[in-house]
Amino acid sequence: MLILVTGGAGYIGSHTVKALRQAGHSPLVLDDFSSGRRAVVEDTLRVPFVEGRVGDGALVRSLLTGDHPACAGQRVEAVIHFAGRSIVGESWQRPAEYYGSNVSEALSLLQAVVEVGAAAASGPAPFIFSSSCAVYGLPRTLTLTEDHPLEPINPYGRSKRMVEELIRDLALAHGLPSIILRYFNAAGADPDGEIGEVHDPETHLIPRVLDAMTGRSPFLQIFGDDFDTPDGTGIRDYTHVCDLAEAHLLAVNRLLLRRAAPAADGAPVPFRTLVYNLGTGQGASVQEVIEAAKAVTGRGLLAHVAPRRGGDPPRLVACADRARGELGWEPRRSDLPTILADAWRWHQALPGR
Ligand code: UD1
Predict the structure, then answer these.
(1) Whose CA is nearest to atom 19 of ligand 1?
(2) How many angstroms does the Cα of residue 106 sit away from the middle of ligand 1?
(3) pLDDT at site 310
(4) pLDDT tens digits along 95-137
(5) Is residue 238 flagged as an active site residue?
(6) I need a surface site. Which of 75, 170, 219, 263 has the fewest CB within 10 A?
(7) What's the pLDDT tens digit per position in 180-217?
(8) CA 284 to CA 334: how far, in whole Å?
């Protein structure tokens, strides 16, 4: 089955592309390579890809209908939308870029999906959206369920919430079968060592810990040790990127089962968008990540306590019972030692590490 994966050259996108292919699907990547890497799809995964923007309506329509040569005559049967900008700090400096890329371009993509779907006997193609725990803002409860109020505290989180709202409204109006997946902290790398995390600049904790261990950076900054947590450092729900990828497969399957053809009079059947948190329910503090990394790598590091990073909540831990119950999702590699062992193997193979 041909599945359009926007942002398929990025971190979570590329792991999902690999999982889709292993499950027998045909992923087709649309990426502008602004942050994703061309070599990942071209040389490593060797999957069909198109260089272009999600906001390019004509291009996207030609892909959805199967008229583009990269589709080899097949129609797209599901869309997984990863493309977008994802660095919280940067979203404060360049909000227009974030709203343009994450919201306007997503709207253009969604419009194309419902327009092409209106002309198809089976209705719009199922749509899966990469959202984030950043939509919740400051947690009011110890673990976050999907019903927690959405009060994002930065432009990145607000852009994700806006797209969630667009999807829900289009799903009701046009019968768009849709799932929103809210990731907590994606971490780790492909256990085969083919693909992994590469961001430039790198802002994420685990690669930065590993960089401090290899000497690529002189020390790690711990952003705050005075949070209201047992050891004072921030707690996050680290989830293996391959477990996240697996959830997309389950989401595609669920939507294909739920896809409803338009009614006899051609009217779309409203769809209530499904929302799932993807996390383990187990938080780890910055200090615990450092200790686990030392145990896995056998290396030490220099760490300095630095002031808190603006807008960092003390603790973000998912309640992912809904994804387990309804999607049958079971994280299998999301314990810290496995995440760190996979990240370490990948990290060591990177040039300059
Ligand atoms: C944030 C977003 C997440 C987004 C991700 C991508 C929120 C709540 N979460 O995750 O939705 O997808 O960015 O950019 O907005 N830390 C250090 N030193 C470092 C780096 C990080 O101490 O050098 C600490 C942070 O303060 C935090 C934890 O490590 O407590 C994890 O940070 P990071 O990996 O950057 O992810 P988030 O900020 O949680």
Answers:
(1) 205
(2) 24
(3) 83
(4) 999 999 999 999 999 999 999 999 988 899 999 999 999 999 9
(5) no
(6) 263
(7) 999 999 999 999 999 999 888 889 999 999 999 999 99
(8) 11
Q: How far is the CA of 299 from the centre of ligand 1 (A)?
A: 23
Tally Cβ neighbours within 10 Å of residue 91.
22
> How many A from CA of 341 to the centre of ligand 1?
20
Q: Which residues of the chain are modeled with pLDDT < 70?
A: 260-262, 351-353
d(CA 52, CA 168): 26
**AA identity, residue 130:** S
87 lines ligand 1 (CB under 6 A): yes
Is the CB–ligand 1 distance for residue 158 below 6 Å?
no
Of 136, 156, 183, 238, the active-site residue reads 156
Q: What structural domains and CATH numbers belong to the chain?
A: 2-187+239-278 (3.40.50.720), 205-236+280-349 (3.90.25.10)
DSSP string, 202-269: ---HHHHHHHHHHTSSS-EEEE-S-SSSTTSS-EE-EEEHHHHHHHHHHHHHHHHHH--PPPTTSPPP
